[in-house]
Amino acid sequence: MSAPVRPLSTDEAAAFRLVRLLAAESSPYFMAALFATVPVAAPGLGTFAVDASWRLYMDPDLLVGEGAWAQADAAGVLVHEVGHLIRDHAGRAGQLPQPMSHGAWNYAADAEINDDLLAAGIALPAGVVTPAALGCEPGGLAEDYYQTTSAAGWPEPSAGEGCGSGAGTWASPVELPADVDVDGRGPLSDADGDMVRRHVAVAVREAAEGGKGRGTVPAGLARWASGVLAPPQISWRQVLRGAVRHAVALAAGQTLHTYARPSRRRVPGVILPAMRGPKVRVGIVVDTSGSMGQADLDAAMAEVSGVLRASGVDRARVLLYSCDAATSTATRVSNLAGIELVGGGGTDMRVGITAAEADRPHVVIVLTDGDTPWPEAPTRARLVCAVIRHGEPTGTPDWATTVHITPGR
Question: Is the pLDDT of residue 16 over 90?
Answer without folding.
Answer: yes
